[in-house]
Amino acid sequence: MLKINEIYRSIQGESSKAGLPCVFVRLTYCNLRCSYCDTEYAFYDGKDLSVEEIVAEVKKYDCKLVEITGGEPLFQDESIELMKRLCDEGFDVMLETGGSLPIKNIDKRVMIILDLKCPSSKMMKKNLYENLDFIKPTDEIKFVIGTREDYDWTKDILKKYELEKKCNILFSVVFGALEPAKLVEWMLEDNLKVRFQLQMHKFIWEPTAKGV
Q: For residues 42 and 5, is the Cβ–Cβ distance under 8 A?
């Protein structure tokens, strides 16, 4: 059984899949407490569902793209089986993970969006850098940047681990903390080979809206 906070259809707001219809399966619980977290409601609330029940619910939406998110999905071990089952059923599966728990056992068909936590998150020490050994070219690594310190730290990490050679790199701003134009300015000044993104759903709907 898995504890599920919500299952809903919307559009994908981030990553290279942004703008596409997507079914989100939000799992309850998280082992991190990022300073800018926008899904605290997923820390505790949810209902217990079997993998079969979750797959059946996802199928109702007639949508090929599915994202497993949270909270922190990998906090519940059975999320690994859920992703495999969804892949077996022909879904294009994405995983959004905070980067503190191992990804090595995730089905290779899953597109992983791996966060590396910057200093302003207050969770930087939780980054599990061993995960970078298991990143595939089809995966994406995301940095949520709220300050110049975050940006300079991110540049050092990109260089140290040669991340631009591994997969697509995503830069986001901490919503309301850093102006998007400022981050883009820094990126262009340094000629970084990364993808800038906005959280599209926060501009279409109210930034605090759930189920979108």
A: yes
